[in-house]
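Q: What structure does this chain adopt?
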Amino acid sequence: MTDAAPDSSAPDLAVVIPVWNDAEGLDRLLEQISRLDAVSQVVIVDDASDTPADPATMGWTAERLGADLIFARNAQQRGAGYARNRGLKKVTASRVIFFDSDDRFTPEFAHLMAQFPREGFDFCVFAHADSRIAQAGGWGPLAGDDRLWERAGVFGALSELPAEKVPELIQISAYPWNKVYRTGFLREAGICCTEIMVHNDIELHWLSFLRAQRILVSDRVAAIHVVQRNGTRLTNRSGAERLEMFCALDPVAKEIAKAGPIFTVPFAKFVMALFHWALGQLAPQHHDSFRTKIRAFLARHLDAAAFARIAVAEPELAERINAHLAWQPCEMTA
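A:
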């Protein structure tokens, strides 16, 4: 007698949710998940919130949720990267998505999951709506991501991303919640989040694209990313913790060097845009330290051949890189 084949229609998706001081958002998200037929497991990791965001205290049970429910709490705040990694270790479903407590699924997510295979893929990346665009009366991602989706030529239903389009779409915003992963892929490829307070999803995003053999893609807007301007979330921080981004960037830069020249310019565009954005977030007293780290990072990872490719493809980008390499602190130039 042989074992019965698994029911391909049964729920088989884990949602891993890091949460910090956002019990209200978590409650809203759990209410939404309770209406998603595809979800079989929810793993919540509270990152040492001032008041624990324990789903049991909010009246959530596995029966009410319609999925297995696991709750863990960090003894001290470690950041969302550590929380996601801890949650991933508890996942038993064959597919997993990392989702933040203040973000939302759209109805398109259910349609997407209805088409979604259990095997034969490494991850699926889908489109999202940014709350800043929605507040302005639009719908969809920020303009830069929107252009990348158009250039990738992805429209409509779930499909396989052609290999030649990977260098294009890899440049979309490095978020953890716009992808459904095959759990085994993350474990087999040794991919996880960087365990730093902010920028912890860079490594997860880039290494996923670089190591995947089969990427599924859909421009269905399946989630809403909520941005709180001037808030207290980790993304609003302006302190020295932002300088830890190089813990995430260094492993990616090493992988880019091995992945081939087609990724040189996309990664250079990404890091230069990130540096520009982070300088705008950082408190002024950290600017010199950050610029020193930028210069050292570029010197470590940018050889003559790579720089030549950038200079031919993006001359203005090469000029900005040169400006960072030539920068000196004021006390050294006085």
